[in-house]
Design brief:
heterodimer, A: alpha+beta, ATP Synthase, domain 1, 5-stranded antiparallel sheet, 2 helices, 41% strand, B: alpha/beta, Pyruvate Kinase, Chain: A, domain 1, 5-stranded mixed sheet, 6 helices, 6 strands, 14% strand, elongated
């Protein structure tokens, strides 16, 4: 059995990371999951949260705002629209993300007054974002 | 005989024009490298995205409840053309080539009896198309204060397009941009983004069976709007590189032409000066002989 799997983190603008990892924890839309070598093929969407990569050189944590991941037995690709290394995520940046999610929720509430679907989605996005901030010790307001 | 002073002024003015075109060429070369790097960096995402997309589409197939962004509205009566051009001119045929392609497509669609709507990105395309097709023009996205195209810009355009699609304003959306082949060749291209044109899957990995979380359709619903944004983003990047490439070769030509013109004018100037001197000599000599 392979010891490691190839981890790629890409955003539309550039390739953020491409390393060998022992395990990768990702915030799947239906719950966190950890991918290890020989994971069965899976495609999942992501909610805002933290991607934790454990490899030979220790742990690296990235904050992602959503996207999706493709897992194969030997590799995992995380496609995130915005991904920021945890250490570089400042209080201001996080505040901006939360504000964005809040604005989305307000807008959803205005446009879809009689449909709970999109409003709930936006509310969940905001809640996920706030929970992520709590995880890494950033205030959401 | 041309006035010597006029000639001298002409030469000086062409020389300063050459300096400007030379400078523009060098700036374009530097920007081109950056634009190419940006396009290069965006490739991994686009490749993986397309791969996932084709796997998904293959597994959803032609299901009846496939999202409308994939299956379309079932009609193609109203077509939205998103014409992406540069904000600035002086880049050879770059803008006009895209506008021409758009015009041909508009005529073709009109002849087929379709309704055409135009959304322009970039000032030059708006100027070119608004003149002939002001009645079809619906919106413009201004990019003049965008220095380096980011994904956020593409998302903004995609959102504009998707909102219109959700409101049922059109059935088919196509983007127009210029594909960068090399510095001298840029190919104006049409790409359909709605309904999403799914690329063919490679045969060799299609036997892998994927789990989907949540279901295939939910993921597709989430992915398709991103696909539109991504297609627009790569269009913008290609355009960025093409624009600089076109400007570079246009300015290279201009510099060379200015050089030729300076040579020609200098010869003319020298000849005229020589003629003046000869004339004066003849006058002096014939004056002396007359004595």
């Amino acid at each position: 059995m392979a010891e490691t799997l190839q981890f790629d983190l890409v955003s539309p603008e550039r390739l953020l990371a491409s390393v060998e990892a022992r395990e990768v924890k990702i915030p799947g839309a239906e719950g966190d999951l950890t991918a290890m070598p020989d994971h069965s093929p899976l495609i999942t969407t992501l909610r805002p949260g933290l991607v934790t990569v454990s490899g030979a050189q220790g742990e690296t944590v990235y904050a992602v705002t959503g996207g999706f991941a493709e897992i194969n037995p030997g590799s995992i690709s995380v496609l995130a629209e915005r991904a920021i290394p945890r250490d570089e995520l400042s209080q201001e940046q996080f505040k901006e993300l939360v504000d964005e999610a809040t604005a989305k929720l307000t807008k959803a509430q205005e446009t879809f007054q009689n449909e709970p679907g999109p409003v709930d989605d936006a509310a969940k996005l905001l809640a996920d974002m706030v929970a992520m901030g709590d995880d890494i010790g950033l205030r959401s307001n | 005989m041309p006035n010597l002073k006029d000639l001298k002024n002409r030469i000086a003015s062409v020389k300063s024009t050459r300096k400007i075109t030379k400078a523009m060429q060098m700036v374009a070369a530097a920007k081109l490298r950056r634009a190419q790097d940006a396009a290069e960096m965006a490739r991994p995402y686009a490749e993986r995205f397309t791969a996932v997309m084709s796997k998904l589409a293959a597994s959803v197939g032609d299901a009846e409840n496939a999202p409308r962004l994939l299956s379309g509205t079932g009609k193609d009566d109203v077509q939205l053309l998103v014409v992406m051009t540069a904000e600035r001119g002086l880049c050879g045929g770059f803008n006009s080539n895209i506008a021409r392609l758009a015009r041909i497509e508009i005529e073709k669609l009109k002849a087929e009896g379709k309704t055409v709507k135009i959304l322009t990105v970039g000032k030059k395309g708006r100027d070119a198309l608004k003149r002939d097709h002001a009645d079809l023009y619906i919106d413009h996205v201004d990019m003049s204060d965008v220095r380096n195209v980011g994904y956020a810009d593409a998302q903004k355009i995609a959102k504009n397009v998707l909102d219109r699609f959700d409101n049922g304003e059109f059935d088919v959306a196509k983007i127009f941009f210029s594909e960068f082949e090399n510095v001298v060749t840029q190919k104006p291209t049409i790409q359909q983004v709605i309904p999403f044109d799914v690329p063919e899957t490679d045969e060799d990995d299609s036997d892998t069976f994927y789990d989907f979380e949540p279901g295939e359709e939910e993921i597709l619903r989430d992915l398709l709007p991103r696909g539109v944004a991504m297609a627009i983003f790569s269009g913008l990047l290609e355009n960025g590189a093409s624009e600089q490439g076109a400007r570079m070769s246009a300015m290279d030509n201009a510099t060379r032409n200015a050089g030729e013109m300076i040579d020609k004018l200098t010869i003319e100037y020298n000849r005229s000066r020589q003629a003046v001197i000869t004339n004066e000599l003849i006058e002096i000599i014939s004056g002396a002989e007359a004595l």
